[in-house]
Recover the amino acids of this structure.
């Protein structure tokens, strides 16, 4: 990480009518970022907080958005140039908004709510610039700010943001379900943190219902509601209900990660045309992926469930959650961890008695190691004992797996 650098500015030396305000608190600024020179702060504390939270990531991206005087584009009429610059600025703001929103979510899933605040505020500012102060799009940054405030224990502040989000939704009759279910989820988290699990369960049940209508019952967007509802029942010591919901969450993530693993193993495919003498064309398979916020959520949810299974010595449930973590580490590039959790998922295989989860885990490990051999990675023995898979290294070398048939 590079260090934050700033130089001093003097408000009285500004041109008449020009005021520079702090990025975090809107007070008169006395510091300017020396790299982008379009971002200002009232003190070093706010500069450091913003730099660590989001500014290091977007410093140079802010320059074209906040620079007012740009060189003219040669050979382009003025009106066309104005429209072109407007469209380019909106596109840059949209890209920046996606970055700040994902960073804020990722930091909150990692338990860094204080660090997430600058990214959440930046998301609010960008949304206002893009859509105005009355748009339903403001619901998203309000919910992010509310969640960050919850993580810091500032419940009154969180309620304030939630009230603004709720009022915006009430003014929009055709508000999408994707926003309404998130509002219910954050309200549920608010009451959960306050200790009112009954009201929390009501909001989370509504969250699951709305998310299921919007994304379907098997979506990972719905899994978050089940996970939080399970935490409520766990807090009430209703472990049978909580456990059934944790199983549901694990099933949803297992299905989703299976698709990601298939996509990663497939790679590009060859398509031959019916016309003779026409060269074979290679068509790229569309890639599925997790963004950084979804990745952080997956690690939080799955590691929490895994730790619970281990703590309660639920050996019957460990293989499936270990398989989920193995696939998650695989799609995020941590191959050593993928092998480690993969080995856990195949433990207990004896003879012909193999559960569906163990069968899936065994196939995943075999295909993963087969892919490593094809890619000329390190020798398999560096990471895993092949005998634990119930097959020999020589057998695996002769086994040409059909990746397209995995997990069907």
């Amino acid at each position: 990480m590079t260090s934050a650098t700033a130089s001093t500015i003097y408000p009285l030396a500004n041109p008449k009518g020009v005021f520079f305000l702090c990025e975090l608190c809107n007070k008169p600024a006395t510091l300017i970022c020396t790299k982008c020179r379009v971002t200002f702060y009232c003190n070093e504390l706010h500069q450091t907080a913003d730099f660590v939270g989001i500014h290091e990531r977007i410093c140079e991206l802010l320059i074209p958005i906040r620079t007012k005087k740009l060189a003219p584009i040669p050979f382009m009429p003025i009106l066309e140039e104005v429209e072109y610059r407007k469209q380019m600025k909106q596109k840059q703001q949209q890209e920046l908004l996606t970055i700040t929103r994902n960073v804020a979510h990722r930091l909150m899933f990692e338990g860094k709510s204080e660090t997430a605040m600058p990214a959440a505020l930046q998301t609010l500012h960008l949304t206002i610039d893009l859509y105005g102060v009355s748009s339903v799009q403001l619901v998203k940054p309000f919910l992010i700010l509310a969640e960050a405030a919850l993580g810091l224990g500032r419940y009154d502040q969180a309620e304030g943001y939630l009230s603004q989000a709720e009022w915006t939704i009430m003014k929009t009759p055709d508000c999408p379900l994707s926003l309404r279910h998130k509002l219910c989820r954050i309200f549920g988290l608010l009451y959960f943190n306050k200790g009112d699990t009954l009201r929390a369960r009501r909001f989370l049940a509504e969250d699951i219902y709305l998310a299921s209508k919007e994304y379907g019952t098997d979506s990972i967007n719905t899994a978050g509601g089940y996970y939080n509802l399970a935490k409520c029942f766990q807090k009430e010591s209703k472990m049978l209900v909580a456990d059934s919901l944790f199983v549901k969450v694990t099933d949803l993530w297992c299905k989703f990660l299976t698709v990601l693993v298939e996509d990663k193993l497939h790679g590009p495919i060859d398509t031959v045309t019916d016309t003779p003498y026409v060269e074979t064309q290679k068509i790229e398979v569309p890639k599925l992926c997790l963004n950084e916020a979804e990745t952080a959520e997956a690690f939080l949810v799955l590691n929490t469930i895994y730790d619970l299974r281990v703590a309660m010595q639920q050996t019957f449930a460990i293989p499936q959650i270990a398989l989920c973590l193995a696939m998650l580490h695989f799609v995020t590039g941590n191959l050593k961890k993928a092998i480690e959790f993969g080995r856990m998922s195949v433990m207990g295989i004896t003879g012909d008695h193999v559960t569906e989860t163990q069968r899936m885990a065994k196939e995943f490990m075999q295909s993963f190691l087969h892919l490593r051999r094809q890619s000329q990675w390190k020798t398999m023995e560096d990471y895993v004992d092949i005998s634990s898979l119930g097959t020999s290294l020589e057998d695996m070398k002769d086994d040409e797996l059909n990746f397209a048939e995995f997990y069907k």
The CA atoms of residues 155 and 176 lie 26 Å apart. Residues 78-109 form the longest helix (32 residues).
